[in-house]
Specification:
The chain is built from 5 helices and 11 strands. The strands form 2 sheets. It has an 8-stranded mixed β-sheet. Strands 1-2-5 form a 3-stranded antiparallel β-sheet.
Amino acid sequence: MSRDIELQCRCGKLHGWLRDASPSAVNRAICYCSDCQAFLHHLGRADLLDEHGGSDIVQVPPSAISFDRGTEVIAAVRLTPRGLYRWYASCCKTPLGNTPTPRLPVLGIATELFRQAPSASPCDEVFGPPRGGIFGKFAIGEPPPGTVKPNVPLLARTIGKVLGWKISGKTWPHPFFDRASGNPKYPVTVLPQAERDALRPLCGPRPASA
């Protein structure tokens, strides 16, 4: 059964909702890519990475997310000029999620956003357990089983979800982009190459710390 799930940044300034959430309505996975790791290191929130450098992400359609308080703190960074938009709450550096352009209707929401909500329920209860891991070749230490090679069932589910969301018009309203112009609603910066290079040694693939 689906339900509405509260979301909130760590300090409480930003608040919103995910509508009609259920294990069948979303796609949950652990991403070990170096860019997701770099993003959290950039925010100073590496504490949210698991022991292998993984980020717990729930993919949802854009129209399912809305904010009712604190949108003035929303900002984004792109690790490269054409990279994903990686959104965060500037007040407390809580990661919100990542998006491509609105042409691809999917938001990868960081589960931390749900865990901080006053009415938080266990993510496994709301979304089901992660369906797998991806980009394990960038993991810290030994990659978790099944994460290095393409996860075909997970990939097929992702493609099916995104196509379904596009066909059913779930791109709009988009929490981060303006429909008329297609441009971001909030400030976006592109990380200078020097800063991106400085983050690389912190990210995988590399051995686990002793």
